[in-house]
Every structure is written in structure tokens, then in C-alpha cells.
User: What shape does this take?
Amino acid sequence: MISRSIRLRVNKQLLQRSKVELKNFKSTISLTSTTTDYPTNHYDAKEPYLTPTFINNKFIKSDSQTWFDIHDPATNKVISKVPQSTSEELEEAIASAQSAFEEWKDYSIIKRQSIAFRFVELLKANQKRIAAIIVSEQGKTFPDAMGDVLRGLQVAEAACNIPNDMMAQSLEVARDMETKMVREPLGVVGSICPFNFPAMVPLWSLPLVLVTGNTAVIKPSERVPGAAMILAELCEQAGVPPGVVNMVHGKHDTVNKIIEDPRIKAITFVGGDKAGKYIYEKGTKLGKRVQANLGAKNHLIVLPDADKNQFINAVSGASFGAAGQRCMAISVLVTVGKETAAWVEDVAKDAAALKVGSGFDSTSDLGPLINPESLTKAKEIIEDSVKQGAKIILDGRNFKHDDAKFHKGNFLGPTILTNVKPGVRAYDEEIFAPVLSVVNVDTFDEAISLVNANKYGNGVSLFTTSGPAAQKFAKNIACGQVGVNVPIPVPLPMFSFTGNKGSFLGDLNFYGKAGITFLTQPKTITSLWKTTPFDDVLKPSTSMPTHD
Ligand code: NAD
Assistant: This one.
């Protein structure tokens, strides 16, 4: 029998030996912002800031020869650069996460919960700082960027409930025999993130990865890595040990390493269809768990009995907010009957009054698109759709900002196309821009069939004052997130993000109970501690136990 103290000492020595040495890296970089000091306007970076890589709780300057420019989408000036992490850096990040897992998984649940509480407090204290970097790199308005952080913060708050969520089940299955089922972490989890929610999407998984005892290798979008770097700093400040959270950068090479490395046991992906299908198919073939949230085409159906003003206010915000670059943005308005078709004029009036401009300008309602390619693509889709029979009733293509500073920005004003139907490009493709396509149908049943025939299933909304219509809608609509008089029905994180059909690949959704199940595996332990002596020692039984 070795004593507990000797055992602990031996374990500690083993852990120290297995700790990864960061011998390949030469220098560190500190972040440009602090909790109280962050950009409040667009800036000219004489020398663009080099985004660090985060390994073993250190901000490392990459040795890479390949750096990608990050532009301010409102001015198109280069404000920072992000590296294609080298193969040594990727190796070091995964090795750190693998090594840290051995220790982190044995932290008590209460200790991990207290770190999560501290992380929540730090997120609140740094909300404006994170929002500011989102405005600089992504372009959305400051209040919208605050919402980006808030929706991630709510996942972190829900993660603090982990002792309840991880509670084991146990049952006395026979006299003196107990079976207990616990859930255990998987190991290293890789996360690949999109550009449109630089804080929220990393936070859809990071807090749950941590509290469930897993470790993380995160690849933020190469277009907007700044917010994620602040999250890394806050993890360290919250008491997350070295190696538990690592952030790497780049494009395909980084994604391929995350997919292929056998030490990474599960992958969370949010982004477009092409990358998502590739990652899901390759990852699952290699035996990994993958959850992948993909593209969307979200419809809003309006019935003639709807409250007209409530509907008009809702549709403008949901279609044009964040410049339409939300996976839950309303991109198709389905008017049912002639009366609601006439309401589109009022929607257009409302949308025309929205102010397009800098995300730092408190009067702006929507900012620019992420890059010139997205602007060109949106314009091409509008043009092609018009050739296919659509009619433009609000045209945002010629938007020009009053201030010359923004003349090179990727701005597109709210645009509304009527006379759209399946087969028209604006209906068939995800535009990801402030473009609303209007489809008119005669009946509610036709509207439901239209939505159900669409390949995507992220979100859908109905505006009505009829309870029976709402009931019929909720029961018959084939879409994962359903709103009734709510245009963007994203559930809070005590539930899960439940997109379906072509908007999701996998079995278990992000966050909520499904998220925790995705990040853990069950183990059953059956024990027998007899309270009565064995009286039949010399009669071993070869038949199945009877559980009496
Ligand atoms: P994207 O697919 O271009 O990029 C997402 C991530 O995948 C990035 O980190 C990128 O580096 C990587 N990537 C891109 N192309 C790749 C490829 N060919 N192979 C491997 N990796 C690749 O997506 P995006 O433009 O950053 O984000 C917008 C998209 O994300 C939209 O389609 C939007 O609907 C979707 N999105 C979906 C949800 C959801 O919950 N369903 C949420 C947010 C965004």
C-alpha cells in the first residue's frame, strides 16, 4: 500500500515532466488594449499590430513567414495582421492542451466552477473593450458588438451551473450492488470560428469546454481574431492553468491540423456550408465528434391579422441589423395575401430611414460588410436577381458616406427585392448582406410549404395575432428555431442553439444540455460492497446474475 501523500508526490512529478516546454518560440507580444484603454474610433495604424498566438498562457509572436492583413471594414485600411501559425506552433498548442488535460480533468468541479465565475466577472468588466475591437475588425455598430459579447457572456453564466449539469446518476440495482453513471471529458477540443460573431461564437463552446474538464485549441476567424485574444487573456486572469486554452491562427493548414491530429477528440465549427461540410465529413471519418453550424436562409411569414407596426419594426431590425451578417438574420419576407404585400412599401420606408455608417458612430444603425469581396458578391446577386425577374424597391448599392474617410468602406445600404421566388439567385443563395427578398403567396399553407422546402433550417418567424395559426405554424414548420411575433428566435443558453436541416451537421447542438453531452462521454461503474458475509464461496455461479 503506498500512502496518499507519496502517491500525490509521484503524480505531481509525472505531471511536471510531461509539461510542454515552449522552446521553439523566441518572443512574446502584449495586447494593444486594456480593460480601460481601447479604441473608440477608427485609426491609422502606421505599423499594423501583429496578432499574437496564445499557447500555455503566453502571448507568442509567431515565427511565421505568412501574415494576413486585417482591414477595418469601414475604411479598408490595414489595422493589424494575423499569422498562418507554423506547423511547430500548431504542434506546440496541441501538445500543451493534451498535457494540461491530464491535470485539468482532475480539478474538482467546484474549483472549475469558481474559475468560471471569475471568468464571467472579467467578461463583464471587459465587455466594452471586446466590443471596441469587434467594431474595429468586424465593422458592426458598438451597441450590436456589446450584444455579441453579451450573448457569449450568457453562455459563460450558464456554464457556472456545471455542478448540477454534471451530477451523476446512481441506483442500487441489486442488494448491495450500485451502478453509477458519470460523464467524463473527452480531452482536447478544437474550435473553428466564423467572422460574424468574433466573441459570441468562441464563447458558445469555450466556457463549456472548460467547466466539463476538457482543454481547448481555438482557431478564431483569420478576419477578426482580436476579440478571441482578449478572451484568452481573461481565461488566464480567471485562473485557467497554462495549456488549458490555446489559440492558433490561419486558414486551411490550421483547420487541417485540427481535423487530422489524433489528440484532438472533438471539433466545434461555425461558419459557411463549404468549410462546414468538409470539416464534418473529414472529422467524423477520422472518428471524431463534430458539431457544425452552417449557413441559413431565414424566413419571416406575415399574416394579414398581424399587428402591422409591430411587424414593420421587427422586420427592419432583423433583416438589416449587423448589415444582414447574422446567421439568424431575416433574409426572406413571405407576405400572405394582397393586403400584407402592400405593407412592403412601409417596410421599405422604415428601412430607408436606417442610418448606414461607422460602427463607432452612435447614430449608425448598420455598418459595412466584412470585405470588398462580400460587397461585390451581394451586388452581383442583386443584379442577377433583377435579370431573373425580381424588382428593386429599395436600392442600397449606391450608398456613399458623407465623410470621405469612409469612401473606401464596404458599405451597402438596406436593399429590398420584391417578386422573388425559388429559382431566383437572391432566394437560392445565402447573401449575408442587408438584402431582403420578398416572396408573396396566397395562403398560409403555401408559406409553410415554401419554408419547409428550403434546404436550410436555422430560424423562422411568424407574425400573427391568431393563436390557432401560431399553433399550426409551430407544429408544422420544419425549422429548428421558431419565433412567434419574435423575429430572431435564438434561445438563451439554458436551451441549445437548435438549427436543423442544412444549417446543422451533427447530433448534438451547441450549448445547453446537448452541448454538455457533446463535450462529455458517459462511464458506468458497478460496485458490490456486501453487507452480509459470502456463505457460498465454494459455489461460483456461471449463470447471468438475477438482481434479487
Ligand atoms: P467561413 O466558412 O468562410 O469560415 C469559417 C471558418 O472556417 C474560418 O475560421 C475559416 O478560416 C475556416 N474556413 C473557411 N473556408 C475553409 C475551407 N475551405 N476549408 C477549411 N476551413 C475553412 O464562414 P465565415 O464567412 O467566416 O462566416 C459566415 C458564415 O457562417 C455564414 O454562412 C453564416 O451563415 C455562418 N454562420 C452560421 C451560424 C450558425 O449558427 N448556423 C452562426 C454564425 C455564422
